[in-house]
Amino acid sequence: MIVGRDVTESREPAVTDQDKMNNKGEELRGKVKEGAGRATDDPELERQGRRDQSKADVKQAGEKVKDSIKDLGGKKDR
Predict the structure, then answer these.
(1) Are 4 and 23 in contact (CB under 8 A)?
(2) pLDDT, tens digit, 9 for 90 and up, residues 34-72
(3) Could you say which of 8, 13, 14, 26 has the lowest number of CB atoms within 10 Å?
(4) Domain extents for the chain?
């Protein structure tokens, strides 16, 4: 039995880590699409790839903000 441990604390990082992996996957798929668009001279596919990368970048920035807030919260409790 673990005493004094918040149950949500153990679950939360797994979700955040999963989100980070999903965002990185979206970024990589965007890079592949962009490269395929260039290779096949398909400007629409290139645009889709850049858009996917941009969406992933925004999501990753949001994850960094969440991490920073968590870090500040942890320092505040000390």
Answers:
(1) no
(2) 999 999 999 999 999 999 999 999 999 998 898 888 888
(3) 8
(4) 24-77
pTM greater than the 0.90 cutoff: no
> Residues 10-29: pLDDT tens digits?
555 666 788 889 999 999 99
SS3 content of the chain, % helix, strand, coil (to 5): 85, 0, 15
Instruction: Please provide the DSSP assignment of 41-55 as one string.
Output: T-HHHHHHHHHHHHH
Q: Which of 30, 29, 46 is nearest to 38 (CA)?
A: 46
Which token pair is 11? 């679950």
Distance between CA 59 and CA 30 in Å, rounded? 14
Q: Which residue bears the tokens 């400007």?
A: 43
Tell me the backbone φ, ψ of residue 3, rounded to 5 degrees.
-105, 140
**Six-digit token string for 13:** 């990082």
Structure tokens at 44: 């629409």
